[in-house]
Sequence to fold (688 residues):
Amino acid sequence: MRRLMAVAGCVTLALAGAACNRGTGEPVAGLITKTDTNPFFVTMKKGAQQAADQQGLELQTFAGKVDGDNESQVQAIENLISFGAIGFLITPNDSKAIVPSLDRAHKAGMLVIALDTPVDPPDAADATFATDNYQAGKLIGEWAKAKFAKDGKQAKIAMLDLNPNQVSVDVKRDQGFLAGFGIPNGDPNKIGDENDPRISGHDVTDGNEEGGRTAMENLLQKDPSINLVYTINEPAAAGAYQALKAAGREKDVTIVSIDGGCPGVDNVANGVIGATSMQFPIKMAELGVEAIAQYAKDGTKPQNTAGKDFVDTGVQLITDDPQAGVEAKDSAWGKQNCWG
Amino acid sequence: MGQAELLGVSHMATTAADFEVRRHDSFGLRVQHTLHGNPVLGPLAVLILAIIAFSIVNVRFFSAANLSLVLLQVTVIATIALGQTLIILTAGIDLSAGAIAVFSSVLMAQFCVKAGMPAVLALLLGFACGTAMGALNGMLVTRIKLPPFIVTLGTLTIFFSLNSVVSNSETVRGSDMPPLMTWTGDAFGIGGFQLTYGSIIMLLLFGYFFYALGRTAWGRHVYATGDDVEAARLAGIRTGRVLFSVYTVAGLLYAIGGWILIGRLASASPNVGTEYNLDSITAVVLGGTSLFGGRGGVLGTLIGALIVGVFRNGLQLAGVEVVWQGFAIGLLVLIAVSLDQWIRKVKG
Fold:
């Protein structure tokens, strides 16, 4: 009830044109996610909140309305500047368009940290804490290659990507998977330019179940001999599985995916997904908040992982069908470390 | 605009017709009259031509398995578009259609999984919630006299945000739900055709509303209200009541669409369907129903939904890149609306 009152109060104040700060007197840190509906960001928010409580910071959270909503994020940064926040974490909806706002935040003396998705250019943020998406794709590619070599099967691959816009996370996962599987990348910044007979086709899923199912159905019509399916994320994989099941092909087609959400790990345990690359959103958020707290104390900024232009928060292959030469943990470990 | 708008429907000189109107009806005018009387013919021609074209491009396209797949893929959106048609026939529009469908599906899942209700009760409650959301739209449109566009723009946002709150943004898996919830996704074969119970429900609903709009007083009132609300009111039709009934019934249809969606995905996901609001309008417009109200019907909407499905599936099989699939659908919509404008210019 008190929370409801606080929200109601905030709305009233916001309508009256005043900034709404709970006014705990603690220094303010911000978290701006792409949306507040995706479990990945919901988890990230939880992790950031816990870390902020530990560090004695007040966390203000904002989110875009939908994926790609840059405007809400620009407004969030304006708000944080007016609050006099020390710094903020942002998962940019539009890596290029957000840069002018980041520059304004820098002028106001704030620490800017990109989470999960780098900004463009990457040095427009003080640091980036992210999953190495290329590496995440590469791991499931290597796993699939080893599995198919062991079974002596010729792969026919369906590529279920995100959307037509060739955004960086989509491109890196797709290209990483192909490289891991041993299919040379054409242009490493472009999806769909590899002309390899093992690739049956690409389609887009919007990263959800419905898109995954429709895309898989259509690709199966195009090439009924598909036996390996790469998916951008686990909801798309769940949808793809439904299409395979309807076609009676779920037993002889292998699905690989990326995310490490709890429903996805469950799907690894019950054989829907062969292997998935787990990422660590809680760790991302915790490290980010700690960096802001450190900056508040003595003005030091975080350092990137050696040889990369970001701080790699790690990926872990999860599978119950381990292959020689590809390091992996089983779904039981996955259950303990999953998110969402 | 001239007869050139008939793109792909007929081939005729655009000049001759303009001068021969007084002597006898030109071919173009006859087409115009025919379409005015039977708005379904245009979309039907597009659908048949598209099927023929895609069959030539890829032999796989014209097979029982693939064609029944297209029907399966459009089942959810067609059910939602059925409700949307009723509203557009009254010259309204419902931007919250997809939000009601997805939110209803999430509510059903939460009722049986979180609240532990029996499946039948959860399902009926889900339908009731969808109906209530439709009724809310109807009340705001008729009582407070707000334009439907604004009302449903507001409720769309409200329903989607409640959807996130109630579901906690988490998907409920089909294996955790009673079989009745996912029954709509169960399939049976007739020859090479695979039909799901969801598709059967959808077709039955279309059959019923085809009858209701064409053969009942309520149906006539819907058309009359859409054609000219003032004239309808003067003729003794209680237009407020008709509008309220249309939004309410649409809400129920969206909720049924939500149930079919659970079957298709074998889960209830709060993160799907964000584009259903506009997709349902696309299907209605492609089906020849006029956005100005009073002209069109549900049969056209089914064809409109199938056109989108055929194009998406056919272009994928033809190896067309995804980017251009959206382009093609958008172009079709513009042609459909232009055609509608041209038909409306018919001299009575």
